[in-house]
Specification:
The structure is a single chain. About 60% of the residues lie in helices and about 0% in strands. It is mainly alpha-helical.
């Protein structure tokens, strides 16, 4: 039996866009979940857990954001090729 849904242009990048959202989600969700890090122990170099955990989130978020950026850049390029548009949104 064949799939009744027609193949849509750009649908092959749907997985990449979902991955971009998954990569960006921890940068938003983890800092909002305060009970995770609202404590003083363990300390690191005299800093309570609250402070050093916040500082550790910064490079982790940067790494995830950079990966998401390059994935979205390639997905956008593939979407534009599938739709026949250029960067400014004008058709070729």
């Amino acid at each position: 039996m064949t799939d009744p849904r027609p193949e849509r242009p750009g649908s092959s990048t749907r997985g990449r866009w979902i991955l971009v959202c998954v990569l960006l989600a921890p940068a938003v969700i983890v800092p909002l979940y305060v009970p995770l890090y609202a404590k003083t122990d363990p300390t690191l170099f005299g800093f309570p857990f609250y402070f050093w955990f916040q500082m550790a989130l910064i490079p982790a978020t940067v790494v995830l954001t950079v990966i998401a950026y390059y994935l979205s850049k390639s997905a956008d390029r593939l979407d534009r090729e599938a739709h026949g548009t250029r960067r400014g949104g004008t058709p070729r």
